[in-house]
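Archive entry: two folds, one per protein. Generate the first.
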Amino acid sequence: MSDSFFVVINPNAGKRRAEKDWHLILSLLLNSGIKFNHKFTTHKLHANTITTEAIGKGFRKFIAIGGDGTFNEVTNAIFSQKTCPASEIKFGVICVGTGNDWCRTLGIPNDYNSAVEIIKAGNTSLFDVGLAHFNNDKMKSSRYFVNVAGMGFDAMVAKKVNEDKDSNRTGKILYLKNLFLCLLKSKAINCSIQIDDANTIPCNSEQCHPERSRRNSRRISIEAPIFSISVGIGKYNGGGMMQLPNAIADDGLLDITLIKKISRFDVIMQTKNLYDGTFIKHPSVALYQGKKVLIEAEEPVGIELDGEYVGNTPVEFEVLPRVLRVFVK
């Protein structure tokens, strides 16, 4: 088993900032005394392949340089490979993406030197990982996620952003543009939602819970027209939007934010409130926590995991408590 790190670099991350800044990060890694091998990704899901192969060669310590999509791929490799228990693997991240939402939740700074110092110090903590089972081209698929899964409007925006990334077009302004363009095409879809081992979180509104919600033996069943659903472990997505303001990344629970039928005008007016979490006061918003979430819809609803569009409903989410060991302060 190798004592060295294996570094996976996505050169396209952050509008190709990872490629441009690699010489700076390389210098910091070399000066830190960290021993490592490295490899650049060349295509989508390549980080998954690289990580799986490195684990097979005996590497147990990894550093991913990229954004949320890169971290998602490395995580999927860690939990999908059959060479060793995932508990043997340590994971460090250097954030170079456009969103960096998972790093924001974990308190990992965007500053390269600080991120390298965290890895060098060697302190780790265990964090939750989510697992989603969904449809992909009418086939059953499964995929892990470390931050947030979005459905409906969120997935529509993610799909458009992914298409722009493939065309080398990214940025906060472009994200907001996609948000409003997708808003014009969006609609609420009737959904059936079941949450096991569930808690209802007050939203400071008597009307915040969807219609016909009922609680029975810690299972909550909901039937309502839904505009957007967020299910996750981290607080942030979409480049700093606090869609799950009560989420804690190691509490063994999935946080769920439902936005039921809502006017386009209200969505626009609430956009700024997504960044501080105060949108949850809107009467169309309901918050829950649970360990398993099953979502079915009267027509297919798109799904994104950590910002990557993956498929559609029906989908079942579950949480794997404190299973990913990450270098943190």
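Generate the second and append.
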Amino acid sequence: MTGLELAGIGAIAAIVGVLIGCVGIGGVLLVPSLSYLFDVPVQMGIASAMVAYIFTGIVGTTIYARHGSIKWKMALILFVSAGPAAFGGALAVSVTPGKWLEFLIACLIVFAGVHALKKGSASDDDTIPQTGAPKLLAMGAATGIGSAMTGTGGPLVLVPMSIWLGFPALTAVGLSQAVQLPIALSATAGNILYGTLNWQIAATLSVATIAGSALGARLAHAVPRERMRRFLAWVLLGVGGFVVTRLAWSQIVG
């Protein structure tokens, strides 16, 4: 890729990083941006995005761990299934047609937009519902394969699932930050093995998303989070609708 293209990718990734830092959502926009703006094959975009989540996972886990917001016993059970599932997801990416992956990503974008529009339904107190190991293992597996196949971080999949089960919001976000790291590491190992990774793009995304996330964390204290959340929700719905329409049109004319 040319230096100008990489600079453009870095700019988009920084914006996405700001959204992640402000409201915790936004990573799902990385792969469509790479695909539609820079003609990056969707498999390569997914693999490159997963590398960036290694570093955002380290930063996020460190911050939440310092505040005691990660339930490590639960997180370790999630790790057991999330890592292998993410590796399997990388294999699935390498053999799945790009249009199917685009459709899956579009569905996840729309889901994220709808979820962001809704008022939080998490528990109002710090009581964590009884959640046995089998349920946590299933949650980890779903998060691992879903994240690896769509190029999204763990939070986008795990947080809505956890809140639906009645987890306190802080617990849900803390667990999603922790699980992001094993998912990204396992998926990246698989993507390297199956040859879908572009290191130039991956390095650009990593640096830009970390810088953007740091800025977004500061903006979160200056901009009303509810307004930012609703703005992002409509952006997600618009992007998801665009991807679905594009895929449908390609089927009609193709």
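Annotation attached to the second fold: The first helix runs from residue 3 to 23. The chain has one domain: 3-253.
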